[in-house]
Write a structure and sequence with these properties.
The structure holds 2 protein chains of 2 kinds. Helices cover about 80% and strands about 0% of the residues of chain A. Chain A is built from 13 helices and no strands. The chains are: A mainly alpha, B alpha+beta.
Amino acid sequence: MASGATAFLGSASERLLPLSLPFRFFAAAVVFHMAAWVVLALGANDLPDYAGGGGPVLAAIHLLTLGVFTMSAMGASLQLLPVATLQGFAAPRLIAGIWWLFNLGSLILALGMYFFWHRAMAAGGTLAGLAILLYLWLLLGNLRRGGALVAVVAHGWLAVAALLGLLAVGLALIVTQEYGIFADAQRSAVSHMLVAAYGFMGLLAFGFSYVLVPMFALTQVPGQKWALASLGIGAIGLVIGLFGAWFGMDLCAAIGGCVGLLAAMIHLGLMVQALRERMRKRLGPAFILIRLAWGLLPLSLLAGIAWALDLLGARGGVIFSLSLLAWLLTFLLAILQRIVPFLASMHAAIAIKHRPPTVTALTAQMPLNIHMYCHCASLLLLGVGIIWSQTLIIVVAALIGLVGAGAFAWFFLAAVRRYLAAVVSA
Amino acid sequence: MAAELTAPHWQASDGKHIDVRDLPPPEPMLQILALLETVETGDIIVHHHREPIYLYPELAERGWNHEVMEDALAEGGEFRLRIWRGSR
């Protein structure tokens, strides 16, 4: 038994942030999600042959990675990690400050990337980087105090290391645009992308899955030995892959991808096993997207391996990047659609005490269904548009994605409105 | 598939008790929900080290109410939660 489990941490107020704090991160992610599709539609012409550098494609990628992925990860981890590690979280004002700083930084960075303004990129990157460092400080404080869930905490530590690495390379890449720090900016950009996707976001997705999937499916936490084995193998794969990408050693990059694939299959095996033993019979539509994301994860690694071995032709890099973003976006939106009503119901139960609104009552199902169909259709059409180099198909895909993102915003606003109505009427 | 009820639980005059103090998350929630499946009426009193906040949405979804037992908080070292089905 971990020592954390025996620590008394009495009331909810010691471990729960005000709902407005995690929800403002989620709200920003919802807005950035819509913005990413708009910007992608504007850059549709550049997408099939995109090989790095400033412009709408780079801006759209960072609207997703910073504005949606990192923003949601911040909101979710600041709320969920204290519960997972059985520690309290303080500093709500600092968290609010981080939110402002990160929003401003991400917005300025995306504008700088869109219009290729170096100074805006540098300013936005610095502000976003500062916000990330402050967030890391909070995260480290929580991880340092340990917790009952060893595998989750271990994933958190490595995700922090990856975040520091990708932040350093990202800022250096911005400076490279003007002063040429890296001899090969494209290889450095690929390394930055690998650390961001499989290092920071991937490790957080893996780690939080060991808490969230059992919590939402009502099942046992997967065995820690296998979870740690997946983490160790994945970290080795990432280092090998990075080495190959950084130094242009394609076979080495492909071997890293194969090792990463092994780690991913162990993780997915643990998830499938956990679902087999679940108490909840009906998992709901969120798990359709979670299962889709679980399929996209190995697909992204296979695409990466194929690209490294030059089996995907000239558009291999774009296809690999799309599969990566598709995996993370699908997983994240699935988790968000489950977390938002769950957290709202939990806060309502604490505020109202008697007969709080249920998760079902707080979930607007129709917009979620619209989002799911639009999300899947847009990803599919994007793939087709890239492979056939058809700008029109990419524009249509982006517009369908925008409709889906709008539906997701509708779901989010409905949850907030229903929560407020329940609390006010009580 | 229902979780196997392994946490200590006993019947007392004020209801059925379950002690989940030594379990790592999310085991307390699984054990409490497993107990709920075996109880039709009456009170259940949960002994915990902390307020089981993630349990509340699950209770609401199943039509159970909850109430923090303030007396137990005052005694220190333990958090007690009374849960019951329907209105009272």
